[in-house]
Prior knowledge:
This protein has helices at 15-25, 79-86, 93-101, 105-108, 113-118, 127-133, 154-159, 230-236, 243-253, 267-288; strands at residues 9-10, 30-32, 52-54, 64-66, 70-74, 137-142, 145-153, 168-176, 181-187, 198-206, 212-220, 227-228. The radius of gyration is 19 Å and the shape is globular. The strands form three sheets. A five-stranded antiparallel beta sheet has the order 4-5-8-6-7. Strands 9-10-11-12 form a four-stranded antiparallel beta sheet, with helices on both faces. The chain has two domains: 58-176, Uridine Diphospho-n-acetylenolpyruvylglucosamine Reductase, domain 3 (2-Layer Sandwich); 194-288, CO dehydrogenase flavoprotein, C-terminal domain (Enolase-like, domain 1, 2-Layer Sandwich). It contains ten helices and twelve strands. It is α+β, with helices and mostly antiparallel strands. Helices cover 31% and strands 23% of the residues.
Amino acid sequence: MQGLAPPPVAVPRTLPEALAALSAAGDGAAPLAGGTWIMRAPIRHEAHAPAYVALGRIAELRRIDVADDEVAIGAAVTHAELAKALSPFSDLAALAAAAAGSANPAVRNAATIGGNLCARGFPAADLVPALLCLDAVVEIAEAAAPAGSRRLPVEAFLADPAATGGGRIVTRIVLKRSGLRSVHVRLPLRKAGDYPVAIVSAAIGVGGGGRVESARIAVGSVEAAPRRWTGLEGAINGERLDPARIAALAASLAPEFSGRDGVEAPGWYRVRVLPTLVGRAIAALAAAA
């Protein structure tokens, strides 16, 4: 029996062309970046879109612009490109580490930062907790308004299913240079390529007395969606960078999470390992300081 014909794929070279192609393709058409999430749609029992618009040849979506006050990352930048470009910057270390350690080398050379953000229903996306702790802003272009774009804080973007689809393309992710040191730690069970059991990303500011003055901590893979750990952020304010002390605080607050059961690990185990990951994150920040 003959297989179904693949959906048509447009390959524009500019963002206006991509927006026009999305509009022309009609309802349900979707952007296509690295394809590592889309190709597995049948495994998740999801239908492919009726048409795709490939973004890989659009130069402005492949750029990384690093300035003293902010970093702008094109949505079609791959994990491997991102890890290499951000490795010199301690304030962006969480995102560099997330990109460098995600999945496996083949996936890192294809998967994009925009695709990682847009993979709805993927609780183990490595880059998302790092973007949450770095207070990222997501820039979106719309076919209905091709002359302009809008920006959403990453938390608002993740909470709004309508932020993607409907002729919209994520174009850039913008990070303000805060000067905070950041870190990203993950726990896979067996080997490279495993989805992580739990992820902790943190950006910490320490004052002259060696005590925490500001903290942004995000957790991924534990629940159905990554999120900030605001309870722990408040609890460590004024604390020294003592891994054991802060891990103990994390243990006392871990019941704030309801772990998800999955093939990698049961939900209770995901929650149980969170304090250990927090301790590792703090130890890495203390060593860097």
